[in-house]
Amino acid sequence: MLRFMPVGDSMTIGSAGEHTWRYRMWQHLRVTHGGPFRLVGPRETLYDKATGAADSYEYADPDFPRAHLAGWGEGWHHLSPLIADAVRDSRADVLLVSLGLIDLGFYTNATQTSENVHAFIAAARSANPRISMVLLPVIPNIRAESDAPFAREVALFNDLLAKTAANLDEPGSPLLLASLPHSYDIHADTYDGTHPNAAGEHKLASAFAEAMHQGWGVGGPYESHLAESA
């Protein structure tokens, strides 16, 4: 059985009333994986904007394995210290990681964020030397559209992430760099310029799905799922 752990920030945890890209990935793997799998992780909740806390179970469709390691306002800076225990306790095989926007926006520059990526990878491997990871670059967002210095940091970090994935890739613990979601449009695929709506959820899931299908032969193409309604 393959155990997949979604790891991320607000775009991964999602907020009350949403499906989340985690749900879209679960749907995709149910159709294409061809073997037993689970979503794993130490957390299950959504973020509730009304309470300002990650204490909601109000998924648009709660009937799926909701486990994850994601947090509203959390980044590589926050989750690197947690990943070893999360991998060890859940016996995760594959990490699907979408982080970096929060780090660059509030905590660390591109170089410092890249150092935290290295720490994250080392910690995950300390818990499972055969862990596989798919790393998603920082996706388009409204701040990068209007803040040129921030956009440059995002571009630099994404370049550093690509180099990290290439340099630290190992046969026994592979790293895949996912491509930015095809035709991702912050005005059509998000509800506020950053957080995905239903269309954006599908595109985030497809980025991970296509990377695993093309890189490892896991699952299948995602295109047939993009037309599904919310």
Short description, anyone?
With 230 residues, this protein is of the alpha/beta class.
Structure notes:
- The chain starts with a strand and ends in a 14-residue tail after the last helix.
- The protein contains 8 helices and 8 strands.
- A hairpin with a 4-residue loop joins strand 3 and strand 4.
- Helix 2 packs across helix 8 and helix 5 packs parallel to helix 7.
- The strands form 2 sheets. Strands 1, 2, 5, 6, 7 and 8 form a 6-stranded parallel sheet that branches. The chain has a two-stranded antiparallel sheet with strand order 3-4.
- With 230 residues, it is an alpha/beta fold.
| Number of helical elements | 8
Biggest pleated sheet: 6 strands, parallel
Helix/sheet category: alpha/beta
Helix percentage: 40-55%
Number of strands: 8
Please tell me the overall pLDDT.
96
Low-confidence stretches: 226-230
Can you tell me the overall shape? globular
Distance between the termini: 28 Å
Order of helices and strands: EHHEEEEHEHHEHHEH
Q: What's the Cα radius of gyration?
A: 16 Å
Strand content: 5-15%
Question: Secondary-structure map with pairings?
Answer:
Blueprint: E1 2-8, H1 10-13, H2 21-32, E2 37-39, E3 46-48, E4 53-56, E5 69-70, H3 76-90, E6 94-98, H4 101-107, H5 110-127, E7 132-136, H6 142-146, H7 148-168, E8 175-177, H8 198-216
Helix pairs in contact: 2-8, 3-5, 5-7
